[in-house]
Amino acid sequence: TQTASSTDALQFPAGFLWGSATASYQIEGAVNEGGRTPSIWDTFSHTPGRVERGDTGDVADDHYHRFREDVAMMKRLGLTTYRFSVAWPRITPQVTADSLGPVNPEGIGFYSDLVDELLAAGISPSITLYHWDLPQALEDAGGWTSRTTAERFGEYAEVVAAALGDRVPLFITLNEPWCSAYLGYASGVHAPGRTDDAAALSAVHHLNLAHGLAAASIRRASPSSRVALTLNLAWVCPETDSQQDAEAARRVDGLQNRVFLDPVLRGSYPADVQADTAAVTDWSFVQPGDLEIISAPLDVLGVNYYSPTRVRHWTRERPKEHADGHGEGHASPWIACEDVEFPFQHDRKTDMGWSIDPRGMTELLLRIAREAPGLEIMVTENGAAFPDVVNEEGRVVDTDRIDYLKSHLAAVHEAIEGGAPVTGYYLWSLLDNFEWAWGYAKRFGIVHVDYDTQVRTPKDSALFYADVIRGNALPS
Ligand code: GBH
């Protein structure tokens, strides 16, 4: 006799959105076409030593030329929604600190055609306005350490929302400002590659402000569109229940979660984070009125989840363990966290070295539901990198990825049952793509890309995901 739980599929709520996600610099290529000017990732990837094997996004998946083929693939898989990002340097290629400059019709045209292609395929477009490809000219004027970058971003958002909003139901202002600020300006493993803690905290605020200004722009230019912000929030798990490990967890929670959630949800910065970082900055970049702009109501909170964050107090008796996935030899993204250690875990890991723990997904979604009651949540990224295993018939048998997806979809389901209002899930990623500092060495796609021929081949995980979508359920 079989129990109900072992035979029943886990059914998702009616109307649950099933998607996949990508980002412009990771897939488009065509960096010198259509009037596009350089972004910080062009500069960074072309700087020797910054990206594995010297890989760049110059060609990537050539999606700029192959988007119709890629949309056809999405349609075959049955996606109901697709999250992609707009490359700012395609929209206003002449932007400077002082002025947005002219709108580039070719840039708008590319995304307009993509939106039309998606709608014709019955796929709802979700646009991320910023997934890390800042126009280089703005970086030259201070980048996210400069208030003018946030102001120009608000104007750029208005342009995109006005041009596409009638056909785009959801705009996500920023993707993972944690990465833009701390990996871009503190650890330097992402563009622009700076290592200056004060700059990183100023970037945190200007990114939050950019979100607020863009949200207001979208409301004005396209009142029918919904507005979201995507954060890579952490499920911070202290190793023991000691008071010292709790202190380590508080620091990390402050820098990763609360410094982004509090201004948006409560209109304030966490006092403990400001106190912890007082020796780094006096936070004078926060000006009167900023927090009102940042805390305007959101329609959806986007959550990206990959792995848990385990922390403990560093005793200084032995070298600090590095479990941050970027290895040694770079500055820490964790400001004022000298006493915090990210202990190495002896558990299963993806090809990124990130621990696999779906419980963190459930806990994180439930926490958001508790702290922001009634706020709709979407999982805007979740997925895993694994090396390809190709069988004799040439199939990519990515059983590891299917296992990862199964356990994480079950975790999302559990959070929904526990009361978290999760309305959609975007798998990262549709295609193998340019994995930032790792270049093409890491493959996150459910569709394999041969970088010599640009041939796309669905992996077994793509067929698995198509099944999930068809049944609106995780099969037993
Ligand atoms: C996302 O970043 C990006 O939005 C997407 O573009 C990218 O391709 C995808 O994920 C895969 O990387 O580093 O061990 O401390 C996620 C980046 C991953 C950074 C998890 C923080 C914390 C674990 N984040 N990481 S660790």
From TrEMBL:
The keyword Hydrolase applies. It catalyses: Hydrolysis of terminal, non-reducing beta-D-glucosyl residues with release of beta-D-glucose. Gene3D superfamilies: Glycosidases. GO terms for molecular function: beta-galactosidase activity. It comes from the Bacteria. It is an enzyme of class 3 (hydrolase). Belongs to the glycosyl hydrolase 1 family. This is Beta-glucosidase. It comes from Pseudonocardia xinjiangensis.
